[in-house]
TrEMBL record:
InterPro entries per record: CoiA-like_N, CoiA_C, CoiA_nuc
Span of domain Competence protein CoiA C-terminal: 255-359
Protein name (database record): Competence protein CoiA family protein
Source domain of life: Bacteria
Residues covered by the Competence protein CoiA-like N-terminal domain: 29-63
Species for this entry: Alkalicoccus halolimnae
Domain Competence protein CoiA nuclease-like: 68-213
A Pfam match: CoiA_C
Amino acid sequence: MYTALNDKGKIVHAADVKNNQKGGPAYDSEHFKCPGCGNEVYVRGGSIYVKAHFAHRIFTSCNGGDGESLKHKEAKLFIKTWLEQSGYNAEIEKVLPKAGKQRADIYVSMQGKKVVLEIQRSFLDEQQFYKRQLLYEKAGYTVIWIGVREENQEVYRKRLSVLDSICFRLFPFMHAFSYNSACRKLQIETAHTQLQGGVFLFQRTLISDTQNPYDCFFSEEVPALQEKISMRIEQEWKKKAAAKRGYPRKNITQAENEVLPYYLNHRLNLNYFPALCHIPVCGFSGIRTSVEVWQSWIIIHYVQKPGEKISLTPLTKAFENQRSFTFLPLAEHRRNLIRRGILNYLLVLAEFGALRRVYPGIFEVIKPLTVKKPLEQLFADDEYVRGKWKLLFRV
């Protein structure tokens, strides 16, 4: 294992002890304990062949005490130490009787809020997740799920899994937290942008150890959009749009079958979707279905007749009830997230003159999209939409 506890119960890393990188009494201590079994451990290795790590001085069957991975335990101890250094009393593995006797990874009271921090690295069954989440919420706990990542990148491109989706928080803005084991820092993930079914681009911003944990977990300030992710969105968007225009759809999904008849009526196939039906939507909505499919569905069913009103609430409900659309499990209510994603898309259509926003949740159709266009025109439309989108949203 790569982490242990010093005489004061603080987390230390084997590489730092070996190289005395940090200095100070925490790393000068001669006695370190295993966080799992409490027995004494010492530093060994540290060569080019063997990475520095802690080993037990006596024979033991300890494997971390409770089956947790080293990364999970490292994240838990890091967050506990950070909370305590900021003056909070953090308790590890606290049993919460009012929440079905669940054992919280970390429990901490922060400015009147009963906060449970759950570090999740391994697969979690959807039913188990919903059960745990509901028990915490009914007992009045604020639950923050924290993922564990090993990549040290500023911009991620990832097909989001169940594990990723449960970490999302909707308010006061769309974000998620994770522990970056590569640099041993907590990070906030924002600007999740869907470019194809289930695949998202997002940025991460490292959180300083000196930042107050409450200000971090309950911040209302949205991290600025980085230039790197702006450029990556444009590159990926162009690449994906060209690919979807150029190859025949061999295996049609249920969601694609929903919109296919609309294109067939115009003697077209799914490669001929309008440019405004493949817009990157910034803000995770939990939708696994491909962008050009669910956006085409909205255009087909709601953006057809000039002067017609679109109400966001019934549109969101109809979208959620579409059996052909697939979604990821979410800690937030699914309908709230879907509503946010659809609203962002309707706002884009309004900027391009297809809709007009009448009230916060009501839009009016101004100009329906023309579907039957030659492929050459659609490629030109793609370039035009990307260029205008960049100007409108400063990407």
